[in-house]
């Protein structure tokens, strides 16, 4: 059959079918990963790994829907910026301290708050598909580097700002951690968005 792969076809009733999906770098990575698992010789495996690294280095022009792999200094800077932008209003707002005082006396509320924050972060990074975010070389074979980086940066930002600006009193460590955890929630969401939206 002639014609381009992405071109739509007209069926016997004269209706035009939707165009075929155009392959992406993500599709190519999936194929290379599958190939990597089937090759036998170490030399062939090394060559496939080199090709995978090359695909990771290829730039895609679109801002949204790009392939996002790894977590480097630029990603960390974007996460920090997003964390600060979302977090400063929480640090200066008195309600943060009130909510922190409440969750300090209600541990299940604190746990639920942190679980929701992590769930939203995972959803932004890996489920919502703002970008094609791939887990590559996870820490300890399990933890995605991007998730660990975003969460760590957001928590350290909350800890630093709340402490430096005198918003927490470390004479009561549990209360301080609870208040920092409340500030952490929007910061980790901001860090995730700041990291992936620029691509």
TrEMBL record:
Superkingdom field = Archaea
Keyword Membrane among record annotations: yes
Q: Where are the transmembrane segments?
A: 108-127, 147-168, 174-197
According to the record, the residues making up region (Disordered) are 1-27
Task: Could you list this entry's UniProt keywords, alphabetically sorted.
Answer: Membrane, Transmembrane, Transmembrane helix
Recorded protein name is DUF2391 domain-containing protein
Native source organism of the sequence = Halorientalis brevis
Lineage start: Archaea, Methanobacteriati, Methanobacteriota, Stenosarchaea group, Halobacteria
């Amino acid at each position: 059959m002639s014609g381009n792969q992405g071109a739509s076809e007209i069926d016997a009733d004269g209706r035009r079918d939707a165009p075929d999906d155009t392959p992406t770098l993500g599709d190519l990575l999936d194929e290379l990963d599958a190939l990597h698992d089937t090759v036998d010789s170490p030399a062939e495996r090394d060559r496939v790994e080199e090709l995978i690294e090359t695909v990771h280095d290829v730039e895609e022009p679109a801002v949204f829907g790009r392939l996002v792999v790894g977590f480097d200094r630029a990603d960390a800077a974007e996460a920090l910026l997003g964390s600060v932008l979302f977090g400063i209003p929480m640090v200066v707002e008195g309600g943060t301290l009130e909510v922190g005082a409440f969750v300090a006396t209600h541990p299940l509320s604190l746990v639920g708050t942190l679980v929701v924050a992590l769930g939203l972060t995972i959803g932004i990074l890996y489920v919502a598909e703002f970008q094609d975010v791939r887990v590559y070389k996870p820490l300890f074979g399990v933890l995605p580097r991007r998730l660990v980086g975003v969460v760590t940066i957001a928590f350290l930002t909350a800890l630093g700002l709340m402490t430096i600006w005198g918003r927490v009193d470390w004479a009561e460590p549990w209360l301080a951690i609870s208040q920092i955890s409340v500030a952490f929630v929007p910061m980790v969401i901001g860090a995730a968005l700041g990291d992936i939206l620029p691509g």
